[in-house]
Amino acid sequence: MKAWLILAGGLALAIVVAACAGHDWVTPADLWRAIDGDRDLHSRLLFDWRLPRVLAAAFVGALLGLGGAIFQGVFRNPLAEPYLLGSAGGAALGATVALLVPLALPQSLLLPVLAFAGAWGATMLVLGIARVAGAVDAAGLLLAGVAVAAILGALRSFLMLALSDETVSLQIVLSWVLGGVQTPTWSGLGVLALISFACVGLALLLASRLDVLGLGETMARAFGLDVTRFIAIAVLAGSVVVAAAVAFGGLVAFVGLAAPHIARWLVGPLHRSLLPASALVGAIVVTLADAIARAALPPAEIPLGLVTAVAGGPFFILLLSRRLRA
Amino acid sequence: MKAVAAKALILVLACVTGFAPAAYAGPIVVRAALGRTVTVPEPPRRIIPIFASNTEIVAALGLGDRIVGIEAYTRYPKEVLDRPLVGGRLGFSVDAVVDLHPDLVVVTPSRQAANQLIDPMERMGIPIVVLLQRSVVEILANIRLVATIAGIAPHGEGVASALDRRMALVAEKTKGLAAPSVIMITGQLGNGLMLVARANTYTGDAILRAGGRFGFPGTLALAQVSPEAILRADPDVLLFAGTERGLKDLIVRPGWSDMRAVKARRAHAVARTELLIPGPRTFDGIEHLAALFHPAAFAR
């Protein structure tokens, strides 16, 4: 109970701090005036631009934390992460195709669908390579993930070089690649909120089976779990979550890796608690990172993905070294 | 109340200084780049032009005193350099722009400007115009467009047609003369590759209008070429957009001193401010290029 209070309080505090942060720091009183319907230009800026952005960052972070927790559960590997397993790279390639290749369908539909197809396809490819190579352990998955991510990154770069004769679309793709939360309209934020809660619900359906799988494949089979089928379903679910995060937040590295670890310290390893706790930790981390991105070097804005990578990279190295030593 | 008082004061000042913009009969609606229709309710008095070229256009129209913010790489004209910055290399701040209470933002789609600013400005109800500059004709159209929005369309027409006449004069002088092949190096990459001016850009257009032709046959898919390709193309005229010193460093490299352009003393440094900023100074650049391409015609 105490852990949940810390998480909920932490998120509320992070949202308030982030909403106050920016090129101009505002006070909570200014925020309240803006929410209360003040029509001054600054209040409108806070209400129509900064608040949706802060809340969108929280949801994107929640999805990343959730996706990370699912992947770490499926692969029984604390180093598993949407980025290292290729799914984020796949989602980014899908999104690049949606943004740059002239296709017959509307972009609002294509973008999430192709991001999902990319995320899912890349993760299945990584899993398949590791299986064929007979190395479904941490090292095998990470190596396959690195190779697939490199290929996907190259394909994405090629598309950007070859297809963007119009600078604006290139800028949009670039801002994705560097990671940055798009500022939705309030109705867009509503959609993101619905998707996020649906994803948490979807993930909770997998919780007990993820716990069983955590005992090892042999043990899980003895408990009556169809392991191969379950892994396929869980990867699919994880890909949906990652695709949603990438569609709204671009490539934001390391949150999916770090959030489940922090959540595990707070609520323990059982997925029924771990999944929502990872989402909350992810939300706190990205909300704060996005605030740093907006406020650190005014008037410019640092791409969010760079902030999380600089902060998260050392975290990954620490985990890796501890694991290798063990 | 304060805002009303400030507006009244500005109006009084404008009348006293004789610089009152013509008021619109009604809101003005213009079609601008990216298929956007922009509605401007009244002549803007607080303009934020983002990027050097847009700042120069606004200033050339005599609207420099209405500029309330610039970006970090604006270097000209001097009198606007003290204005607050709204962004730089790392992009642009919506907060900083809105802080200045602009009633017109002029951007160009590079360094994320269009991507970062169009959506928030539209939500705030601040008119934002995107200008493209792929050719000299587009630069002239931009001057006319900004003047129209500012409520000084006749003045803008005067500025643009004066520039247009200068181009006609260059065209007349270079008419019938053999066009030298030209390669203009606009930058060098860390890996040794060089950026060159190519077709379908205003810099490429400037080369053609000055009576030159491209040293590389066909259109280049990418702006980056290897130094070897430049040596092989062996143009009549080699241009380096930068300093004399930069040009010297370039042509002392092995092989470069044997180029025809270098031997014939037709390797020149040209001003980046004139040929890499698509504003009114581009027309000075074209005249300078024409004089380099056809020295005899311009000596007369």
Cα separation of the termini of chain A: 32 Å
The end-to-end span of chain B amounts to 63 Å
Helix content of chain B: 40-55%
CA gyration radius of chain A, whole angstroms? 20 Å
The protein's oligomeric status is heterodimer
Overall shape of chain B = globular
Helix amount of chain A: over 70%
What does the average pLDDT of chain B come to? 87
Outline the structure in words.
- The complex is a heterodimer of chains A (326) and B (300).
- Chain A is built from 13 helices and no strands.
- With 326 residues, chain A is mainly α.
- Chain B is an alpha/beta fold and 300 residues long.
- Chain B contains 13 helices and 13 strands.
- Chain B has helices at 2-16, 52-60, 94-99, 113-124, 136-149, 153-174, 202-209, 227-233, 244-251, 260-263, 272-275, 281-293, 295-299; strands at 28-32, 36-40, 47-49, 87-88, 91-92, 104-107, 128-130, 181-188, 194-196, 213-214, 224-225, 237-241, 267-270.
- In chain B, a hairpin with a 2-residue loop joins β4 and β5 (91-92).
- Chain B is globular, with a radius of gyration of 21 Å.
- Mean pLDDT of chain B is 87; it is low at 1-20.
- The A-B interface holds A 22-24, 41-42, 44-45, 48-50, 161, 167-168, 171-172, 174-175, 183, 185, 297-302 and B 34, 85-96, 98-99, 101, 109-110, 112, 114-116, 119-120, 123-124, 222.
